[in-house]
């Protein structure tokens, strides 16, 4: 590798957004196809045997199973804003440009004025950004831009390649600016890795929230980003997403349970991967099995799962889907099937910039007065109702 190539690779890796947070910088090598989970036997279903197959602690990087690549959970207690929409606080002691230490309860990530992830490329997979609290400013190499948050979701198919920036503007100069979001990486199958890039906005008011009550009237609220739940259907994912295939069984949803609430997660399709991420609360039980706080619970897909919240409000993230079952080659911001394709991605990015960069800086943000909106590459503007 030449010095130029090394500098380019380091720049790409340093700008790899949530991949850097996830501790996979770089994540090099070929990963064999995932093995589909074994279905439960009819006898175990009749006996109501434990649906849990594995329980593991969650770190900054949440391990996932095919077709997902990983999930990052950003939870930052940002202070009041300064006039530049950054934190009105000293940045002394932080590794600016690469700040992931959680000092004072928040990170600058790769931002040096506004927190976030300045310009960085992707190829070969999708990002699903679920912003629960706070705002995110998006800008990309196709000329599209957006501000979204407070329950909105952006679903971006990187396909053959895109540059984008994800900045976290702090909009309140007189009060804290908390941010909480998930960024989920969903793989693309070989035949769709080089499709044209595409992004969709799923505004918060279009994402269904379904409430169920147990015998004692305690509530469980499902927020369904992907995957049908009975008659409840969320907005469609991008057309080339693995989740757009009827047989993919992809589901992305949060489950918020009132203290002590009981609810049964229905069975999924045999052969799907299924994980619950227990990120809020204490004392969760799955069946009769107690689950430690902040753990991932891998489940048999084809049996119902009885959940009981502990003494505090409990929240879980569900990621589910039929495995793509293809080799995965991954380095920094690119996910392909072979290492030759990874090398080609770096070469293509150096040559084309994946469309260039039409913005004045690498970390563009919108004015503090801007509301939520999305402007697509063709100039169409979309706003929440």
Verbal overview:
Strand 18 (285-286) and strand 19 form a beta hairpin. The longest helix is centred in the C-terminal third of the chain and has 14 residues, at 339-352. With 385 residues, the chain is mainly beta. It has a seven-stranded antiparallel β-sheet, with no helix packed on it. Strands 3-4-11-6-9-12 form a six-stranded antiparallel β-sheet. The chain has a six-stranded antiparallel β-sheet with strand order 5-10-7-8-25-26. The chain has two domains: 1-32 and 68-207 and 334-353, Jelly Rolls (Sandwich); 45-59 and 208-326, Jelly Rolls. The chain is globular and about 55 Å long. The protein has helices spanning 3-14, 18-21, 42-47, 339-352; strands at residues 30-31, 52-57, 61-62, 68-78, 116-122, 125-133, 135-140, 145-149, 153-157, 162-167, 177-187, 198-202, 209-213, 219-226, 251-257, 262-265, 273-280, 285-286, 289-290, 295-299, 305-308, 314-321, 328-331, 334-336, 373-375, 381-382.
